[in-house]
Amino acid sequence: MSDRKAVNRYYPPDFDPQKHKSINKYRNSHPLRDRARKLSQGILIIRFELPYNIWCGGCGNHVGMGVRYNAEKTKVGMYYTTPIYKFRMKCHLCDNRFEIQTDPKNCDYVIVSGARRKEERWDAAENEQVVCEDHEDKKKMASDPMFRLEHGVKDQDKRKAAVPRLAEIHEWKSQWQDDFSLNQMARRKFRGEKTVLKEEAAEDSALLAKSSLAIPLVREHEDDRKLASLLKYHSLDSYEKKQKQKREAIASRSIFSSQSSTTTVVTPDRDNKLLDAKKKLGLSLPKKAPSAFDLDKPTPGVSSGIKQLVKRVADTTATAAKGKDSTNQTNKQNSSDCPST
To answer: Containing H/E element for 241?
Structure first.
């Protein structure tokens, strides 16, 4: 049916070629059918294909290059003898309409409204590729000798600057000619790295299984090994020795000390070992805390109750001493009064 309508093979019995001239005039229709319904306004409906990727201005969705729309084609101007056309179409994802216009000067399409272009353009000059001369430069090259001379000097400077780079590329190319040896070297390196990674993974899994952990382990570093060699987590003294030191400290401690009975006993040997370890690690040494051997020294923070207790004990001791002296004197007098036998 569409084929018959397109080529107009069917002519009705009342068709008169002298009167109607063509089947389109007989049917009072345009050859483009519905596509020419706005032809009186200068608008022709065509099938337009997007020349590049765009972002719709209405819904913000991405529309890929090559998507086809029924666009309204309108002539809006001229560039010299080349007409400039504008295409207006509706987004298939929303009700937004966007317009694209031809740019004969740059051989490109320009979005007028309703959308924005996804920037994927390739700049040949920025990527150091050979760029074709502009029409104006060609005219100057043909008519202006000084411009032609300057252009030649610039080309020579570019060639001199590119010579070392070209020589380097040529040298690398000569080294890369033996593809078999390069491939063999790369595969040997990858096999060695793969073996090392397998061994590290086996060691990590064994360590995690031994420690009952389920955390990812990072690779070892030389600084971590040095720090681990300086740290010692085993006990310096046995349990019996610690208990003996605690009992000796409690026995030799004064009853007037403010230290509690649960104070940790720290020996001079252990203090020296801790100080040496901190010096190796580069840590700051804090002020020395009072040890069990300093308990006999007077504590500056004695409370008033303890002072009164000390004074009362001293008074009692003095009274007892006086009573003892008076008793001794009485015994001496009694012994002197008694006759000797």
So the answer is: helix 239-252
